[in-house]
Amino acid sequence: MAGGGFVDPGAAKRAHLYEYKITSYFVYACVVAALGGSLFGYDLGVSGGVTSMDDFLKDFFPKVYRRKQAHLKETDYCKYDNQLLTLFTSSLYFAGLVSTFAASHVTRNKGRKISIICGSISFFLGAVLNAAAVNISMLIIGRIFLGIGIGFGNQAVPLYLSEMAPAKIRGAINQLFQLTTCVGILIANLINYGTEKIHPWGWRLSLGLATVPATMMFIGGLFLPETPNSLVEQGRLDEGRKVLEKVRGTKNVDAEFADLLDASEAARAITHPFNNLLERKNRPQLIIGALGIPAFQQLTGMNSILFYAPVIFQSLGFGSGASLYSSIITSTTLVLATFVSMAIVDKLGRRFLFIEAGCQMILSMIVVAIVLALKFGHGETLEKGYAVTLVICICLFVAAYGWSWGPLGWLVPSELFPLETRSAGQSVVVCVNLFFTAAIAQCFLVSLCHLRYGIFLLFAGLILIMSLFIYFLLPETKQVPIEEISFLWQNHWLWKKYVLSGEKRPSI
């Protein structure tokens, strides 16, 4: 099969000797670490809802408010087209993509736990500033602090979960990050639905409540164990073995610990991990994990829908309350889809979910575009039947994303990198992800204004491209121990040309 690849039994080391039990200590560590996703999710959900609230717009974006109230024919698609308004959303992600490189240094040298705690502190400060904002400058500065928090959290949490999880359930455990992200989105939409009725300061409550997940993450993070991989990487071998025994619930961890020692030796030989990412032998991880998947995750168009779901639904003729209610429906769908993904990702595999979801997302976007092309843009509210069709199609799109690109966009890159470049690689993943998140956030509303229904056809075309990318280039990683993923490249039809020759000569 194109893109397939399996661990070479002769090359694989000790994976068949690994033992583990699901312990309360392991469950606590993963649940607390996964709270990092709730920061990301809450902001995704709350920012779109707040930017559709009249009280918020009157205080900070009066021109947008007046345009929204005008209900003119030409503002059906364009009533929210304002670059300063979208900068309120996207500034967070520009800050995050810069801060993730500082997070890489902290994560590699001080551990995953410290990065998680740093992220929670910065996010808390940003939430306080946003809730207390009296001008746009305070809003943007607050968003920058939020972005730094997300840069640290998104850098450390997926690594933490993948390193703590046994290979056979690594997919499900890593997706706790996506699950808490989706729950954060849902909670934010529920809060927005309630606070929209609190005049004139409901939006402040929505933004300020971001301090709650940040506080939970900080307190829980103080008691988190460091991952055995990180402890071994730092030379704290005895401590690393003790944590590994406690997390796995058995003293018989000799095989797994030996693999960690081997990976650590390779890691210590690398003094410049970012340079090492560019070596020929690391070309698959660079192209697939660091560049392709995080960029494509945003180019699906999903985060645009999450950012601006209330705005989209209002633009399409839904009332303010109805638009927020529709957002609750889509975010609930996202949570349920994540549970589906957690249940089947380690059975059916990553490639199956990527490809099936790609087909479903393409069809959904095409139907949305057709409905809008035929029935929307004439200055009138959509008929109920067509409005329901749009919500259903968007929910089908969200569901497909929720069991594929959403969770797998974080899971797969966190699996691919060897220990010596793992923190550096994850920084590039976060940087690329947040760059495209910010770019999409900044460009979506103006694109909606000018491309109209064509924006959804554009996303359909991009999803086709990314599905082909997965089919031909990504090997299946389900149930492969994280320190033995590198053997997959040696059997891949394309990547074996790079990794085998990369051992003998420098990159080109």
UniProtKB/TrEMBL annotation:
Pfam families: Sugar_tr. Signal peptide: none annotated. Keywords: Membrane, Sugar transport, Symport, Transmembrane, Transmembrane helix, Transport. Its main location: membrane. One of its GO terms (cellular component) is membrane. It is found in: Membrane. One of its GO terms (molecular function) is monosaccharide transmembrane transporter activity. It is a multi-pass membrane protein. Residues 29-478 form the Major facilitator superfamily (MFS) profile domain. The keyword NAD does not apply. InterPro entries: MFS_dom (IPR020846), MFS_STP/MST-like_plant (IPR044778), MFS_sugar_transport-like (IPR005828), MFS_trans_sf (IPR036259), STP/PLT_plant (IPR045262), Sugar/inositol_transpt (IPR003663), Sugar_transporter_CS (IPR005829). The keyword Transport applies. CDD domains: MFS_STP (cd17361). It comes from the Eukaryota. The chain crosses the membrane at residues 22-42, 84-102, 114-134, 173-191, 203-224, 286-312, 324-345, 352-374, 386-406, 427-447, 453-474. NCBIfam families: SP. Belongs to the major facilitator superfamily. Sugar transporter (TC 2.A.1.1) family. This is Major facilitator superfamily (MFS) profile domain-containing protein.
